[in-house]
Amino acid sequence: MRKLVLLALVGLGAQLVDGSLGMAYGVTSATLLLAIGTNPAAASATVHLAEIGTTLASGASHWRFGNVDWGVVVRIGIPGAVGAFAGATFLSSLDTSVAAPVMSLLLLALGTYVLVRFTVRGLRRDRLGAPLRSRFLAPLGLVAGFVDSTGGGGWGPVGTPALLASGRLEPRTVVGSIDTSEFLVSVAASVGFLLALGSKGIDVTWVLALLAGGLVAAPVAAWLVRKVPPRVLGSAVGGVIVLTNSRTLLKSDWVGASEGTRWLVYAGLYLAWAGAVAWSVRAHRAEVAGLDRELAALEDAQDAGASRG
């Protein structure tokens, strides 16, 4: 019972992050399942089965708040479903002893990308409103879907930064469209895993626990996407993913690091993570202060023009 409550809380927290940042539900949940010894393919299958419900609820909530571009959903979601099915089939064919470190390595790479992307870079706003072409969205969806299945998560970490970097959609529209299209990816991945694995290693109660937490968080996250600074949240979540999967890799047969070496690495990662979060908070405050100064200058110019008139 305690484990189910923990899984529900993880599902709730992961969905709050995913719904407000456009990523990290699958990566966060899969990381926890791997940490407690779940078969990598079964962990990814469990997460994707839960995501069928959470992404449906999240998509509906984002649609209600006007955060969805349906053209983007279709053009990225369908190729994403194809990639997800292929990734599920590939992961299911790997031996467990090989799949666990492979999956952790992929999650570590995704976590590092999220951490660096949101700590170092801001959001482009000079291309807002420009159309997104299918020749960009289709390959992006195919790759993101494949990574999502093989890594237990990755649709958001691959898709969201790419769309944000394009600068052609508002951040809230990027998050809403990625979360909504993920429903197609989750269905395709789940079908792929069930065909390859059957129900072997999949605990339905774990799926329901993750789903319950996610369903509670989905409408709250759709509202929070307008309130929470993505830069700070991205740095925080990326650090958690990097730390957790570094621990798995350092203990694996691939690395086999001694206890002393592991703790030195952990200490360095904790310091880097704390520095990244502090930098993101400072950068966000500077951005807000800069916008306030620009607004004040504009108001002063308007007042001066009115007084001269």
UniProtKB/TrEMBL annotation:
UniProt-listed PANTHER family: MEMBRANE TRANSPORTER PROTEIN MJ0441-RELATED (PTHR43701), MEMBRANE TRANSPORTER PROTEIN YTNM-RELATED (PTHR43701:SF12)
Entry keywords, A to Z: Cell membrane, Membrane, Transmembrane, Transmembrane helix
Organism of provenance: Phycicoccus duodecadis
Protein name: Probable membrane transporter protein
Sequence similarity: Belongs to the 4-toluene sulfonate uptake permease (TSUP) (TC 2.A.102) family.
Bilayer topology term: Multi-pass membrane protein
Domain of life: Bacteria
TM spans (from-to): 70-92, 98-116, 136-155, 204-225, 263-281
